[in-house]
Design brief:
Layout lengths: L2 H21 L9 E4 L14 E7 L5 E6 L13 E5 L5 E5 L9 E6 L5 E5 L4 E5 L5 E5 L29 E6 L5 E5 L5 E5 L5 E5 L12 E6 L5 E5 L4 E5 L5 E5 L34 E4 L7 E5 L6 E5 L4 E5 L12 E8 L2 E6 L4 E8 L3
Antiparallel strand pairs: 1-24, 2-3, 3-4, 4-5, 6-7, 7-8, 8-9, 10-11, 11-12, 12-13, 14-15, 15-16, 16-17, 18-19, 19-20, 20-21, 22-23, 23-24
């Protein structure tokens, strides 16, 4: 072979290799390189994480974990809810709301722009706002009294009608720039509730269904700088977007097949005869978060199978993805909530692996 042909062949091979590195996966979506900060959370010797169902980060880089721990029995009757605060270095600081009446079964925790902490307790049907000092500032919802019936709301078919100001297994909370409060409600009511910034009921929208504007488990919720509301409609495998008045805007779907070697954390492996359904479908959003403004904002969404995190533009284009199911560092066991204080710094709470990972993304690698 002549020298010129050899050079051309080598250049072609280099070009293909560069293209493959840029694409990063058969789907054509780039794989984002990332690291996990080793042993980030530093717990006291006598404190252990149960299922960390929520994670949030405030303006001082303090990390808050809503943990299904402190349990001595069934969630309703004992307590499977703790809010734990850690410093920017991961050092344990304190527990917030110890022995709080609302605690039953933790779901998610968020921090608003004024560093107030909001905890959503699925078991007690309540959402609690704490001020930065850790004291209760507002209460939403009300749990059933033990003198009436010692148990949470149960599912019936057809579901009971939703009641203004009352929740049935709520899941998450967010705010628009005006301070209006949006609560995803949730496992039973399948709607979004809106309050004004002072805590006055405004309206709700949605019901159980598959049509646009309806939900089958609104599991996570976030807002962008324009006040648009993004709802992770988990069992319908989509993210629905609304304006701040609940008017439907669009649907975002993540339709990227699982790799052939994808693992499940437990249970039988999926096959063509036994494909993943509902919340286990690739791309089904369990947890979403939006990076803060000003500037370009990004939407992150996590699925349970094959255990990936997806980076999207706000118009719904998948820009990259990373992760897989497993028990090792940089692998995930059902990410239940994420916090994304910046484009390349992500915190993930995993309910199956009983941990929170701090992830540093390197999209340029």
């Amino acid at each position: 072979m002549k020298l010129g042909s050899l050079i051309l062949s080598a250049l072609a091979l280099l070009s293909c290799a560069a293209l493959a590195a840029d694409i990063g996966s058969p789907s054509g979506v780039p794989e984002i390189a990332f690291d996990s900060v080793a042993n980030f959370l530093k717990l006291p010797p006598d404190l252990h994480l149960g299922e960390p169902s929520g994670v949030a980060v405030n303006s001082k880089k303090h990390v808050f974990v809503f943990n299904r721990g402190n349990s001595t029995g069934p969630a309703y009757g004992a307590t499977a809810s703790q809010v734990l605060e850690f410093g920017p270095d991961g050092k344990y600081i304190r527990e917030i709301g110890h022995n709080l009446y609302a605690w039953s079964f933790a779901h998610t925790v968020r921090v608003d722009k004024e560093d107030n902490l909001w905890a959503v307790d699925k078991g007690s049907d309540m959402v609690i706002k704490f001020n930065p000092e850790g004291r209760v500032a507002m209460v939403f919802g009300r749990k059933k009294e033990a003198s009436d019936e010692a148990g949470p709301w149960t599912r019936v078919n057809p579901p009971r009608p939703a009641v203004d100001g009352q929740f049935r297994q709520p899941t998450d909370v967010t705010w628009d720039p005006a301070g209006n409060i949006f609560i995803s409600d949730g496992y039973i009511n399948s709607r979004v509730a809106k309050y004004d910034k002072d805590g006055h009921w405004v309206k709700s929208w949605g019901d159980r269904g598959t049509e646009e504007g309806k939900f089958n488990l609104p599991h996570s919720i976030a807002a962008d700088a324009k006040g648009n509301i993004y709802v992770a409609d988990r069992e319908n495998s989509r993210i629905q977007v609304f304006d701040h008045d609940g008017n439907f805007l669009k649907v975002i779907k993540i339709d990227i097949p699982a790799p052939p070697d994808a693992r499940v954390w437990y249970g039988n492996a999926f096959t063509p005869a036994n494909p993943p359904q509902g919340s286990r479908r690739p791309g089904s959003p369990w947890a979403i978060c939006i990076t803060p403004g000003p500037g370009t904002q990004y939407l992150y969404s996590a699925d349970s199978y094959p255990g990936r995190v997806y980076k999207l533009s706000l118009d719904g284009k998948v820009l990259g993805m990373f992760g897989s199911t497993g028990r090792q560092i940089k692998e995930f066991g059902w990410i239940h909530e994420m916090a994304c204080p910046s484009e390349n710094e992500i915190y993930v709470a995993e309910i199956l692996n009983w941990r929170v990972q701090k992830l540093l993304l390197h999209p340029g690698k």
